[in-house]
Design a protein that fits this description.
six-stranded antiparallel β-sheet, single chain, alpha+beta, 11 helices
């Protein structure tokens, strides 16, 4: 409060009242007006009961939008596997810089694990998420609420009843989540989901087959997990998180783009792509989700493991956040819930030159 206009007057009042600091004086004034202590209003809200009609103002809870992440499925989009399926041949383009090649690599990480695989410069093979979807998502419908079911007894002679909890607060059922994505020039978003859905269809009726590991394990390879992380006002700390138990795309809004209107010279129906995901299970704010997040990143990038990370990567300081955007790997500090970003040492030095 050193910049208060009447600092000298406050100092005189503080001295005459025998108070040790200006903060103590302001606390006293605030209490005399029924607002509690100026510098401990959070304490007052928790500790005691407000007996006056008005609530002393305290800062409202605010959050930044955070991230929506989609884990990469494990489709078998190898050339020989999809070459015999006509609708999938649109994605057999062999130019690594093409979006067709990039989305194949995003949806099929296994094919590109072999040492001599041609990698796309558009895809980081060490990120476990479909970055194209995270960067283009505009809206996501909310997942279901959690709640309890109550058992209520039949009425007695005096119409009395009793009740008790008769369920768990977890949501483990089926529901739908609709996501809208901003589609940019090239139609990559539409192509990605059309490929995903066409593969699932061809897998159901043949002749497409999963990767050998998935066949042996009897696993469905087309699942993703939608994860949602909300940050505090600074965009630095995770304050809320959610993920689906598992999700699969089931509807793609492609039909509207083939309507026709002569009055318009250009079609803009595909500027936004809407996709409905069938989902099972909704998990909220479970601490193990944060641990699983770190383990998932480490599975895809071994150098992000504890004890190795500091040798290969630099933690991005807040001052360099903008300069390092779109680069690096995430990690959640389990002690503080800070969402950290780690960039390769040489890459970090190159990026901060632009600051």
């Amino acid at each position: 409060m050193s910049d208060i206009i009447y600092k000298e007057l406050l100092e005189q009042i503080r001295t005459s009242g025998g108070m040790k600091s200006t903060e103590e004086l302001l606390d006293s004034i605030s209490r005399s007006m029924g607002g509690g202590a100026e510098y401990s209003r959070y304490n007052d809200v928790f500790y005691g009961i407000n007996r006056l009609p008005n609530m002393a103002p305290i800062p409202l809870h605010k959050e930044t939008q955070g991230l929506v992440l989609f884990t990469r499925p494990n489709l078998n989009l190898s050339y020989d596997n999809i070459a015999t399926t006509r609708i999938l041949t649109n994605f057999l383009v062999q130019d690594p810089s093409s979006y067709q090649y990039a989305v194949r690599m995003m949806l099929d990480p296994t094919t590109y694990l072999v040492p001599d695989a041609r990698l796309s410069p558009l895809v980081d093979p060490h990120i476990p998420y479909i970055t194209l979807l995270t960067n283009s998502i505009m809206t996501m419908t909310p997942p279901p609420d959690i709640g309890l079911n109550m058992y209520t007894s039949p009425e007695g002679q005096f119409k009395e009843q009793w009740m008790m909890n008769d369920s768990i607060s977890e949501y483990n059922g089926k529901y739908d989540i609709t996501c809208t994505f901003s589609n940019f020039k090239g139609n990559a978003i539409l192509g990605l989901f059309q490929l995903w859905l066409a593969y699932m269809s061809a897998l159901r009726i043949g002749p497409v087959i999963p990767h050998p590991y998935n066949r042996r394990a009897d696993e469905m390879d087309y699942w993703t997990r939608i994860e949602r992380y909300k940050f505090d006002e600074s965009g630095r700390y995770v304050v809320g998180w959610f993920h689906t138990g598992g999700s699969v795309p089931q509807n793609l809004s492609i039909g509207a783009s083939f309507g026709y209107d002569r009055s318009s010279g250009f079609d803009f129906e595909n500027k936004e792509i809407s996709v409905q995901f069938a989902s099972i299970g909704a998990v909220y704010n479970d601490p193990i989700q944060l641990l699983e997040f770190n383990l998932r990143v480490q599975m895809w990038n071994k150098d992000m493991a504890d004890g190795k990370r500091e040798r290969y990567y630099t933690k991005v300081p807040m001052a360099a956040t903008k300069a390092c955007n779109f680069n690096g790997y995430p990690r959640i500090n389990l002690a503080t819930q800070e969402m950290e970003w780690w960039v390769a040492n040489d890459e970090f030095q190159s990026l901060i030159k632009t600051v």
